[in-house]
Automatic annotation (TrEMBL), chain A:
PANTHER family assigned to the protein according to its UniProt record, in alphabetical order: ABC TRANSPORTER PERMEASE PROTEIN (PTHR43370:SF2), SUGAR ABC TRANSPORTER INTEGRAL MEMBRANE PROTEIN-RELATED (PTHR43370)
Annotated TM spans: 6-26, 33-54, 60-83, 90-111, 131-158, 186-207, 264-283
Subcellular location: Cell membrane
Name the record gives this protein: Nucleoside ABC transporter membrane protein
GO CC terms: plasma membrane
Principal cellular location given in the protein's record: membrane
An annotated Gene Ontology molecular function: transmembrane transporter activity
Keyword Membrane: yes
Record-linked InterPro entries: ABC_transp_permease (IPR001851)
Superkingdom of this protein's organism: Bacteria
TrEMBL record, chain B:
Keywords assigned by UniProt, alphabetized: Signal
Official protein name in the record: Nucleoside-binding protein
An annotated GO cellular component: plasma membrane
Sections of the chain in a coiled coil: none
Domain of life where this protein originates: Bacteria
Signal peptide extent: 1-31
ABC transporter substrate-binding protein PnrA-like domain residues: 39-323
Pfam families linked: Bmp
SUPFAM superfamilies recorded: Periplasmic binding protein-like I (SSF53822)
């Protein structure tokens, strides 16, 4: 029972950064811009937020700082892909390289300095940890708590609202959207900035909410997991939440089984999220059903191509 | 993505040293002599100020510069690729540098090549596996420090359950974990040690999460065998005694810190480089592998909650290890499953240490990928 409570309590901690980043990627990619830069955006978010706290800032303000600086990098990506119409795959990889490189240089003197981060609910409300539910709730943080609401709102906006429809139209058929009077570039630029905001928040969550320290490379490929998660979720925010919980619970289970000395294939279990993603891809392509992938994803829209 | 740079964190398959033990021919009996004035260069695979492994070596570099009054150059971010490292070495040699210090396991083989090409240049390779007439690999008997940390943990625990998190299950990590458990059991043989691998060298987020997994098992002492401080942060929050590694981590857990097992590379680098300069350096045939006796491994100052009794016990164990009357891996030594590794009266030799791929009795944990 204790094992179960401990495990359930920690899963949101694993899932939250993945959800935040993949929501950002979903918005961006629904608008037709392939975004492989999550790793770099998260790196910038993690570092900027840590520097903000270490410079005496409030942890909540630090989250904003992390999101804002990742947005600045996303703006560069948007300029390259939307305005200058550069190749999106290469630009995305460049964002990763820039993000990791810049954080290595700028963050140099902030490495390994422990700070006080976002408090959890147990600390904020001085909860008694007497029941199972209280023990699970007490270790959650306000961001995690807000996450289901965020996912719900985003899903509604994307799938049900008029502006969400416009964004999806740009990703499916920009020419048609253009004819209908949608400013394709503005929508795409906005979507790219949103991905910067959410990926930056995801990175900031890692440093300010989870580990309370910054070191170079601490995003540790979570950005790439988010990229995989988007495919797993077939560009649907609700499914991204479910997927992140599945990935997170698998990830959280491995060390916990090790800690009780269970005889488990550790390395095999660690590949589970990726195997699941592959499975979803394979099933998607075999069944012939629409995978959810925006039809114009990764392609460059030029107005004169209108037909 | 970061796996390759992380791999440089010393430890990877140092097991390969067993191969080196067999393969390397006897080194020349002649002392090595430098040509020209001594100039030292340190090459790092990533930032020298990484808050962990590199920073510990960087402290050694500064000591060399200050105490020996020789010019010391530094290059960072040279990847563990033969061509890139060789280009850096070539450039240094051209500029008259004649003592090259490589700081990662991954430099070992290309450094050995360069050592053959430049017989009048001295090469020192941290956590390397290659040795020769002008090249010496060096590492530290970290398990000796971890035994002392285990004594501290054994004294501090009330639940008789302590925990440690580590990177990958390679020899130099396994000996730390095992020695830690044995040190604790020297205090009380009923103590159980929970050991978990994060399967990463450099992921503070995961380290904090794994620390929580260990604390959930009711462990009331938490040690980290990794470079980041997030596990200690978790221990401090839970009010659990904490033990750090590589550098003094007391800043992450000012109240609950017991100690940190630290490298003091200056204790190796300063005398060795002095020998090189003085012309009486003879590289060790199988590499330099120093411990508590030379002070290359040590404990950081003990924390405020460490009792006088514990301090005395640690000191007794330290003196016994230095005197050679105590070896953490002396028999009788049993594996986790009860099979005997060493009978009473025996002890493990260095080759057996490097290839350690098991947990000892008293450890709860899963050893991934058993061969």
């Amino acid at each position: 029972m204790d094992f179960l409570i401990g495990w359930i309590a920690i899963i949101p901690n694993y899932a939250t950064p993945l959800v935040l980043a993949s929501l950002g990627l979903i918005i961006c990619e629904r608008a037709g811009i392939l975004n492989l830069g999550a790793e770099g955006l998260m790196a910038v978010g993690a570092m900027s937020a840590a520097i903000a706290v270490l410079s005496g800032g409030n942890p909540w303000a630090a989250l904003v700082a992390g999101a804002a600086s990742a947005m600045a990098l996303a703006f560069l990506f948007g300029m390259a892909t939307v305005v200058l119409r550069a190749d999106q795959t290469l630009s995305g990889l460049a964002v990763v390289a820039i993000g990791l490189g810049v954080t290595g240089v700028v963050g140099r003197s902030y490495v390994q300095k422990t700070f006080v981060g976002i408090p959890n609910l147990g600390d904020i409300f001085a909860l008694e940890r007497d029941t199972a539910v209280a023990r699970i709730v007490a270790v959650q943080d306000p961001i995690t708590l807000a996450l289901p609401v965020m996912v719900g709102l985003l899903w509604w906006w994307l799938m049900r609202s008029r502006s969400g429809l416009r964004l999806r139209a740009v990703g499916e058929n920009p020419a048609a959207a253009d004819v209908a009077g949608v400013d394709v570039q503005i929508v795409q630029l906005g979507a790219v900035l949103a991905s910067g905001l959410l990926c930056g928040l995801a990175g900031a969550y890692l440093s300010v909410a989870t580990s309370h320290v910054w070191v170079e490379g601490m995003v540790a490929s979570r950005g790439w997991v988010a990229v995989a998660l988007v495919i797993f979720a077939r560009w649907n925010p609700a499914r991204a939440l479910v997927g992140a919980l599945v990935f997170g619970s698998a990830d959280a289970l491995v060390p916990r089984l090790q800690a009780v000395g269970a005889d488990i294939p550790v390395y095999l279990m660690m590949t589970l999220p990726y195997l699941l993603t592959l499975l979803v891809l394979v099933i998607g392509s075999i069944s012939g059903r629409r995978s959810g992938e925006p039809a114009f994803l990764g392609r460059i829209y030029l107005r004169q191509d209108k037909h | 993505m970061t796996a390759s740079t992380n791999m440089q964190r010393r430890r990877k398959c140092l097991v390969a040293i067993t191969a080196a033990l067999l393969a390397s021919a006897a080194t020349g009996a002649h002392a090595f002599t430098l040509e020209g004035p001594p100039k030292v260069a340190f090459i790092y695979a990533s930032s020298a100020q990484d808050g962990g492994w590199n920073e510990a070596l960087e402290a050694g570099r500064k000591a060399v510069e200050e105490q020996l009054q020789v010019p010391v150059a530094v290059t960072e971010n040279i990847p563990e690729e033969a061509t890139k490292l060789r280009a850096a070495i070539d450039l240094y040699v051209k500029r008259g540098f004649n003592i090259i210090v490589g700081t990662t396991y991954g430099y070992s083989a290309p450094m050995a090549e360069a050592a053959k090409a430049y017989p009048n240049v001295a090469f020192l390779s941290a956590s390397g596996t290659e040795n020769g007439p002008n090249m010496e690999s060096f590492y530290a008997r970290t398990y000796q420090g971890w035994y002392l940390a285990g004594v501290a943990a054994g004294q501090a625990t009330k639940t008789k359950k302590i925990g440690i998190l580590a990177g990958f299950p390679v020899g130099v990590v396994n000996w730390d974990i095992n020695s830690f458990a044995l040190g604790a059991r020297s205090v009380d043989p009923t103590i159980e040690t929970v050991a978990v691998f994060t399967n990463s060298w450099w992921d503070p987020v995961k380290e904090g999460q794994v620390a929580q997994a260990i604390l959930d098992q009711k462990a009331d002492v938490l040690a980290t065998n990794l470079s980041a401080t997030s596990a200690l942060d978790a221990a401090e929050k839970a009010g659990v005694p904490a033990i750090g590694f590589q550098l003094d981590m007391s800043h992450a857990a000012p109240k609950t810190i017991q100690t940190s097992v630290v490298f003091r590379w200056e204790q190796y680098l300063v005398p060795t480089i002095k020998e090189i300069i003085d012309g009486n350096w003879k590289p060790e045939e199988f590499g330099a592998f120093e411990g508590l006796d030379k002070g290359v491994v040590d404990l950081a100052p003990l924390g405020p909650s460490v009792t006088e009794e514990t301090k005395a016990k640690i000191e007794t164990a330290r003196q016994a290890i230095i005197a050679g009357t105590l070896d953490p891996f002396q028999g009788p030594l049993k594996k986790q499953d009860g099979t005997v590794v060493v009978e009473a009266g025996g002890k493990l030799d260095d080759a057996a240490l490097w290839s350690m791929d098991y947990f000892v009795e008293g450890i709860t944990g899963t050893m991934p990928a058993k061969q």
